[in-house]
User: Which sequence fits this backbone?
C-alpha cells in the first residue's frame, strides 16, 4: 500500500490551507483580546474622568458611555470570531453556500427554542439606548416570578444580562428579558429620609428646632457638605401612634450617597438628643406588642 501520496497531500495542505487556518484562528484570538484590552482602557478612562474622590459619583453620560463601550466591545469580539470561523471554513474547502439551507433549518429550530434569548437581547438594547441604568447605578430590580427585588450596584450591562453586586458582596445575574420593573436609586439626585420617633408627651416644636440645628451643622460639616445638594429640611410630623410620633427630616444628596448621609444624620440626631437630655424611644421588635397594645389585648 502506497501511503506516501496521502501523506504528501496532507503535508501540502498543512503548508497551505492548514497554515492559513491556524493563522486565522491565532489572529482572531489576538484581535479579540486587543479589542477587549482597548475597551477596558476606554472604560477605565471614563471612570477616571468622571470620578474625583469618594464624594463624587459618575455622571449619567459617563454611566451610559461605560455601558455602551462594554456592549460595543462584546459585539466586536463576537463579529471577529464569526468572521474567523467562516474564513476558516472557506480555507478548509467547505462551501459556505452549501451551509445556507441547513443553517436556515437550524435557525428556524433554534428560533423557537431561543425566544427567551432574543427577548433578552432586545430588552438589553432598549435598556442601553434609553439609559434606564448604567454602570455604577444603585438599583432595585424586580424580575418575573421574583418575590423580592434584586438590589445592588450595577457592575456590568450587556445585551443579554445585567450583573449587579448586592450590599453583602453577592453577584446577581439577571436576564434582561425577565426584568419587569427597575427602581433607579442613583439617577440625577437622591434623597435621604430620616424618621425620628419621639414620645407624644414631648414638645414637637422643640424637636423640630433640634432637627433644624442638626441639619444646619451637617451642611456646614466639611466632610458631609460635598455630598449634600442643599441643607437638610424638617418636614414635620409624618405619622402618629398611640405612644409616639415620627418627625421626618429629608436631605437631597448626590446619586448613591443617600445611605451614607442618612446614617450620618441619624448619628447626629442621637447625639443632639443626648445633649438636650432627650431619649429616642426604641421601636418594638417585629411581632412584639407595645405595653399599651398588650394592656388593650388583656
Assistant:
Amino acid at each position: 500500500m502506497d501511503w506516501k501520496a496521502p501523506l504528501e497531500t496532507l503535508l501540502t495542505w498543512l503548508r497551505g490551507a492548514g497554515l492559513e487556518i491556524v493563522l486565522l484562528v491565532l489572529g482572531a484570538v489576538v484581535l479579540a483580546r486587543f479589542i477587549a484590552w482597548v475597551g477596558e482602557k476606554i472604560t477605565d478612562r471614563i471612570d477616571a474622568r468622571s470620578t474625583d474622590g469618594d464624594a463624587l459619583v459618575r455622571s449619567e453620560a459617563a454611566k451610559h458611555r461605560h455601558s455602551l463601550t462594554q456592549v460595543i466591545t462584546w459585539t466586536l469580539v463576537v463579529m471577529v470570531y464569526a468572521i474567523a470561523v467562516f474564513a476558516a471554513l472557506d480555507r478548509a474547502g467547505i462551501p459556505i453556500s452549501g451551509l445556507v439551507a441547513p443553517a436556515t433549518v437550524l435557525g428556524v429550530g433554534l428560533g423557537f427554542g431561543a425566544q427567551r434569548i432574543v427577548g433578552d437581547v432586545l430588552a438589553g438594547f432598549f435598556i442601553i439606548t434609553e439609559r434606564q441604568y448604567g454602570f455604577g447605578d444603585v438599583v432595585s430590580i424586580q424580575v418575573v416570578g421574583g418575590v423580592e427585588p434584586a438590589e445592588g450596584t450595577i457592575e456590568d450591562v450587556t445585551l443579554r444580562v445585567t450583573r449587579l453586586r448586592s450590599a453583602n458582596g453577592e453577584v446577581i445575574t439577571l436576564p434582561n428579558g425577565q426584568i419587569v420593573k427597575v427602581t433607579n436609586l442613583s439617577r440625577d439626585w437622591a434623597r435621604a429620609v430620616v424618621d425620628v420617633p419621639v414620645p407624644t408627651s414631648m414638645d414637637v416644636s422643640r424637636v423640630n428646632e433640634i432637627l433644624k440645628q442638626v441639619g444646619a451643622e451637617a451642611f456646614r460639616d466639611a466632610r458631609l457638605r460635598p455630598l449634600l445638594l442643599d441643607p437638610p429640611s424638617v418636614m414635620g410630623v409624618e405619622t402618629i401612634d398611640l405612644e409616639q410620633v415620627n418627625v421626618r427630616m429629608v436631605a437631597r444628596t448626590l446619586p448613591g450617597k443617600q445611605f451614607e448621609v442618612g446614617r450620618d444624620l441619624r448619628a447626629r440626631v442621637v447625639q443632639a438628643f443626648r445633649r438636650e437630655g432627650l431619649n429616642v424611644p426604641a421601636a418594638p421588635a417585629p411581632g412584639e406588642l407595645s405595653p399599651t397594645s398588650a394592656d388593650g389585648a388583656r
About this structure: The longest helix spans residues 4-50. Confidence is low (pLDDT under 50) at residues 52-57, 284-298. DSSP finds seven helices and eight strands in the chain.
